[in-house]
Amino acid sequence: MRDRILLASPHMSGGEMKYIQRAFDTNWIAPLGENVNGFENDLAAKLGEGEVVALASGTAALHMAMILAGVGRGDTVFCQDLTFAASVNPAMYMGARPVFIDSERDSWNMDPALLKEAIDKFGIPKAVIAVELYGTPGRMDELEAICREKGIVFIEDAAEAMGASYKGRNCGTFGDFGALSFNGNKIITTSGGGAIVCHSKEDASHALKLATQSREAVPWYEHREIGYNYRLSNISAGIGRGQMEALEERIAQKRHIREVYQRELACAPVSFQPCPQGGQANHWLTSILLEADCAVTPGQVIEKLNQENIETRHIWKPMHLQPVFADAPFVTYGDGDGVSGEVFDRGLCLPSDTKLTEEQLMEVADCVKGAVGV
Ligand SMILES: Cc1ncc(COP(=O)(O)O)c(C=O)c1O
To answer: Read out DSSP for 119-143?
Structure first.
């Protein structure tokens, strides 16, 4: 059997080794060094605004954002319901109480009207965490404006959205803090890594201090607050610098993958994740919904493609349906499982690996058509 077709796997640019070699040559095998600074500069240049601190993961970036937001035990944090658990876990580390907010159909991301409703119902939260699901922005400006008006810290979980934008602003730069992930499956990777984007030098230097065990600027080891070991290594950052050289190419490749699926599946009973007007997705994972009258379930499609050695994946299971968050409130229209529940029930992610050949893409599209009975 041929090699498995993957959802998304690391795709090296070829430029990585020169940075890694330099780290070895200079013996900077440490969580600081030229590559860490260089990677931060590259990210800041691409984002066009904000102060970037490179960290060990996107989860660490969200944890730092929680601390900088002043989230404490018993505080309420509003979080997008349709996401990966890593968006919410850092709020739980702080002892906060999550309230989950449903998505809108137009982007599968947090519904601004429901954010307002949640504020009316539960009062002003300490922070709001909105996600750009699969690299597609929601109505970030509206969410940001609601938070700003009410004095709520707005945290953008842009873990999946490096290179995407909304109304001319780059994802990662909205709100008070942005979190990026460079995990192995992301559009660019450092094998494992992330970054927090801050909007003041004070926040960025506080994040840096927290991430390096909160050491005070004195000759001995003195600590006035609890610290973390969250800095990105100079080796990983070297991979990141090489990856940045290919970011635009990866976005173009991801866009092409989506276009092929759109063309080939035009006759199939499926629709694609929408992007709101003004949004430019990075198309990290092309995701589809099976029409309500489709004869098969996503699980059956996933199983069928698996038999062909093709990896597909369910949409993230909504947070309000997770056993670990069973007690948390869910804000939606009516009393069902909302848009997030429906997207989970009917959706799936298609292979979006930038190393796929045209032939493989066509093969995947044919298998999807076969599985949905076209
Ligand atoms: C939406 C979302 N948030 C947060 C994370 C966490 O990032 P990391 O794996 O780098 O910790 C991820 C990805 O893993 C993610 O997809």
So the answer is: HHHH---SEEEEE-GGG----HHHH
Tens-digit pLDDT profile for residues 147-174: 999 999 999 999 999 999 999 999 999 9
pLDDT (tens digit per residue) in 36-51: 999 999 999 999 999 9
CATH code at 16-244: 3.40.640.10
Strand order in the sheet with 97-101: 51-55, 194-198, 177-181, 153-157, 127-131, 76-80, 97-101, 330-331
Is the pLDDT at 1 greater than 80? The verdict is no
Rounded to the nearest angstrom, the distance between the alpha carbon of 58 and the centre of ligand 1 is 5
User: Would you state the pLDDT for residue 2?
Assistant: 79
- Residue 203 beta carbon below 6 angstroms from any ligand 1 atom: no
Ligand 1 in reach of 84 Cβ (< 6 A): yes
Task: Compute the distance from residue 25 Cα to the ligand 1 centre, in Å.
Answer: 32
Q: Which CATH number fits the domain 247-372, given the four candidates 3.55.50.30, 1.10.3080.10, 3.40.50.2300, 3.90.1150.10?
A: 3.90.1150.10
Which tens digit of pLDDT belongs to each residue from 273-302?
A: 999 999 999 999 999 999 999 999 999 999
